Amino acid sequence: MVALGDDQLGRLADMEQRAIANRVPGLARLSRDELVQIEPHVSGVAALHSPETAVVD
Q1: 57, 37, 56: which is closest to 47 by C-alpha?
Q2: Model's pTM, two decimal places?
Q3: Domain limits of the chain?
Q4: CA 46 to chain centre
Q5: Cα dihedral across residues 14, 20, 25, 31: positive or negative
Q6: Dihedral angle over CA of 18, 1, 11, 31, nearest 10
Q7: With 80 as the cut, is the pLDDT of residue 57 above it?
Q8: 15 within 8 A of 49, measured Cβ to Cβ
Q9: Which among 2, 21, 31, 50 would be 20 to 30 A from 42, CA to CA?
Q10: How far apart (Å, rounded) are the C-alpha atoms in residues 49 and 30?
Q11: What is the pLDDT of residue 54?
Q12: Cα separation, 7 vs 26, whole angstroms
């Protein structure tokens, strides 16, 4: 999950709290600098990284 601007940081914090409550393994909050180290083509101000989860459709 990536917060594209400061106005989305509150929603990101809410998602982080829910993930913590659900014991999501390996969850990490990333700064902008940490984010681009993992995914250099993304731009955002902060992110949640969850390496042990996936998205399915």
Answers
A1: 37
A2: 0.84
A3: 2-49
A4: 7
A5: positive
A6: 100
A7: no
A8: no
A9: 21
A10: 7
A11: 80
A12: 25
